[in-house]
Amino acid sequence: MAKLQTEFHNFIQNLKALELFIKVQDELMNINYRSRSLENNEFTKAATELISDVVQLTNDISEGEYDIQIINKANEKFADKGVNIFTKEVEYKDTPEVHFKISNSQMEREVGEVMKMADLVTRQQELLFRNSLTSLMIYFENLISNIIKLRLSKFPNAFNPKEKTIKYKDLMDFESIDEALDHLIENEVIDIMYGGFKSWVFYLNKAGVNTKKIDFFTEVINEAYSRRNLFVHNDGIINNVYLNKVSKEYSQDVAKGQRLSISEDYLIKAVNNVKIFGVILLLEAWKVFDKNGHDDAYDYIMGKAFDSMKEHDWEFAKFIYEFLHAEADNHANKIITQMNIWLCEKELGNFKEIEESVKKCDVSGLQTHYELAKLSLLENSDKFFEILGHNPDSLDTEALGEWPIFKYMREDSRVNEYLQDVESIGMIN
């Protein structure tokens, strides 16, 4: 269990660090660019605003929001700087392009400098996002290779080491048979990893690792993996290798020779997809490779899922709780995990779809705090505080303050009354 727990911890921490790195670096780049608009030179400020406004106008027009009045207002704004903004029809485009002319030489120089800075920021962001996608896939590949390595170490006959050979001169470098076996395992893992993402999943499926819960992530992650390879080996320019690797969903709107890009939105989604897929894959492998450590693993994962809810990582938490719900071996854990799945669904904006299921949930045979959790989900505050008033010891203050499911009740002023009652009872006792 210790090795799998370490893999879980390292994978999650690496992706958290990557997400933070992307956010901080991107903000720093934008701050550096925007700082020009705060300089005392009025032409520098105006030039920065002009470029920003032209970009916004271009986006608005491309989305069908063209209005001549917007152009007129923009011209009024920059009239004293010798700027004339206008649109120009282009034959091969459905919408006009935004252009501008500058008659003021100082403004023209400043616009040139701002455009140079904008180009540098764009290139820096492109470099950041490329490197971040590469790092993401390195973390993912490390996780997969370590899962495979753990399997082969525990079940060495799985790859039939009797059929493997070691050169005599290499054998002399090993101090024991175990060390030689480790060498064979390392080589086997390398051979498997050369096959690419889909071959890894196929291998683990054959090894008994169930990926049905996350199969729908396969194509989107395969595209991200293929895109990383495209940037590493072909500068992001689409080739036949990419087109043959990805599904039609991702190849139908692009063509050979076209250069792909990586936006922040694309990257954040890729991190989230890889995180969910990688963790569920690891948990499913945990079931197969460490059957005796079920209880310890369950408690550990339950704690990690709870932490994810506290961090408002609702989609990730939902997938973990769904795994835990399927693995729960008693009614209480079934209810707790189901409640938390519903909470995640609610925070993801899907409460209407599950509201009836919440209402029908039978908690009559369980402790009172389960009923309170259900009432909080339904935001039935009157009934919640009525029951809590009759049973002030049914919900400890830690659960009320820490369990995210009670967030809907914590803002109610009656919470303070409950806390005062609990404090009074404690003083009397």
UniProtKB/TrEMBL annotation:
<protein>
    <submittedName>
        <fullName>Uncharacterized protein</fullName>
    </submittedName>
</protein>
